[in-house]
Structures are given as structure tokens and as C-alpha cells.
Specification:
This protein is about 80% helix and about 0% strand. The longest helix has about 35 residues, at about 165-200. The chain is built from eleven helices and no strands. Helix 3 packs parallel to helix 6. By secondary structure, the protein is mainly alpha-helical. The chain folds into two domains: about 1-30; about 40-260, Orthogonal Bundle (MetI-like fold).
């Protein structure tokens, strides 16, 4: 299926959902405004937070703050998780030493770290970044580890027989060969970071989309709840699209090889 046709199908699906939204809330009233906002309620809420503000700030301010938190947590996660995963995948000794600890902390939900993060770092942004970091850290480690283990052993053995320096082996062989799995982990990490953001901002936040959602829920303001949800979704979509662009440029050699094969 061509990209143009996929785009047309996507827009058609979106148009059907919007029409269904109008039909259920505005035209027929099957869904009351107290349960789900109508398009008019959503538009009024969007204009309010974009121009006059809500929860102590404008939509741009809330969105920018949340984006910064996710970006910092995500960058720290891949800076620590990807090297650790590569190391564990390459070295059996590192796996033996680190994997038991990793298997213990891996099942712990990211939200379970919130009380400890507050005790360590207070109610500021550092605690929120810590929670986001942990959510994004685990997928990056797992997929980097799996990417190394998926490399054909003869390639690694040949590099060792040729006496390839360790740094060159990591940069030119290990990381490129594991790159497809690494980027899969990065996509999962980014999704986990956005999923965790709202919960992290529910506690002690002075600004952010999580605060908007929390205050809108307390005010029983469905229109503003939907604005906050769609803002998170839009930012998540934009950052995922950007990561996809980086992946396609970084793995252009892989795409070319697949076409040749």
C-alpha cells in the first residue's frame, strides 16, 4: 500500500470519528456533556487555556514544561540504558553481575518509584525526571541487550581474531549491528516516558499537562480534561515522528540492504 493511500485512509478514519463525536454529543445528545465534552465544549476549553490560561499557565507553558521533563528523562534513560544493554549483551561477566539486580527492579512499576523519588529529591522536577527515567530506562536496556545477542557470532569472533580494538569494535560493529533493536527500544522508551509523565505530574506539580488534567478532574471540567489528553497525545505523536525520522536516516544502510535482498 502506498504512503499516499495510507495517509488518505488515516484521514478518513479521523473524519469518521469526528462525525461520530458530533453525532453522539451534539446532534443526538446520547452522550451527555457531563460524561464526555461536545466539540463546542472542547473548543471553548482550548481557547480558554490557550489565551487566558488554566491551572496557573497557558497551554504553551504547560506543554513546554511537560515536553522538557520527557526529553530530559528520555535522554538520560538512553544515555544510561543503551550502553548498559550493549555491555550486558557483549560481556557474559557483566550480564552475570548486573542481570540479577536488573531482574529484581524490572517488574517494579515506574509509578511505584514516586514515593521514593519524593523522599530523595522532593516535590520538584528532579523527582518527576527520575520516575520518567526509570520508565524509559528498562525498555532501552532490554532491547539493546537483545540487539547484541541477535548478532551472528561469526561476526564477533572474526573481529576478535583480527584484533579489532575494543572501542572500534563497539562503534563500528556492535552498535550498528544492534541498531534496529536499539531503535525499537527507543520507541518503547519514549512511549513509556509519555505514559508516565501524567502520573508523575499529579504530585506536587506547579505547571504541566498532568496538573491541567488533575485540576480539570477536580473541577469536573470534561472539556479541559480532553484538551489535556489530546495535548499529551499530540506531543507524543510529534516526538515519535521525530524519532522515526532519526531512525530512518540512521538506518538508511539497513533499508538499502533489505531492498537489495
Amino acid at each position: 500500500m502506498s504512503r499516499r493511500r495510507r495517509t488518505a485512509i488515516g484521514w478518513a478514519t479521523l473524519a469518521v470519528l469526528v462525525a461520530l463525536w458530533f453525532g453522539l454529543t451534539t446532534w443526538t445528545g446520547i452522550v451527555s456533556a457531563g460524561r464526555f465534552p461536545s466539540p463546542a465544549d472542547f473548543w471553548f476549553s482550548l481557547i480558554q487555556i490557550a489565551t487566558r490560561g488554566y491551572a496557573g499557565g497557558l497551554l504553551f507553558t504547560h506543554a513546554l514544561h511537560s515536553l522538557i521533563l520527557v526529553a530530559v528523562g528520555f535522554v538520560v534513560a538512553i544515555a544510561t540504558g543503551v550502553p548498559l544493554g550493549l555491555w550486558m549483551g557483549w560481556s557474559r561477566r557483566a550480564e552475570a553481575a548486573i542481570n540479577p539486580v536488573f531482574l529484581i527492579i524490572r517488574p517494579i512499576p515506574p509509578l511505584a518509584w514516586i514515593p521514593l523519588a519524593i523522599l530523595w529529591l522532593g516535590l520538584g522536577d528532579a523527582a518527576k525526571v527520575m520516575v520518567i527515567w526509570f520508565a524509559a530506562f528498562v525498555p532501552s536496556v532490554i532491547n539493546s541487550f537483545s540487539g547484541v545477542r541477535a548478532i551472528d557470532r561469526p561476526i564477533i569472533e572474526a573481529a576478535r581474531m583480527l584484533g579489532t580494538p575494543r572501542w572500534r569494535f563497539v562503534v563500528e560493529i556492535l552498535a550498528p549491528a544492534a541498531a534496529p533493536m536499539i531503535f525499537t527500544g527507543l520507541r518503547l522508551s519514549l512511549q513509556a516516558a509519555w505514559t508516565t509523565l501524567v502520573a508523575a505530574e499529579l504530585v506536587g506539580a506547579l505547571v504541566g499537562l498532568g496538573l491541567v488534567l488533575n485540576m480539570a478532574q477536580q473541577d469536573i471540567y470534561p472539556g479541559m480534561v480532553l484538551v489535556g489528553m489530546l495535548a499529551v497525545g499530540a506531543l507524543g505523536f510529534a516526538t515519535t515522528w521525530l524519532l522515526g525520522r532519526v531512525e530512518r536516516r540512521s538506518l538508511a544502510w539497513n533499508t538499502a540492504a533489505a531492498r537489495v535482498a
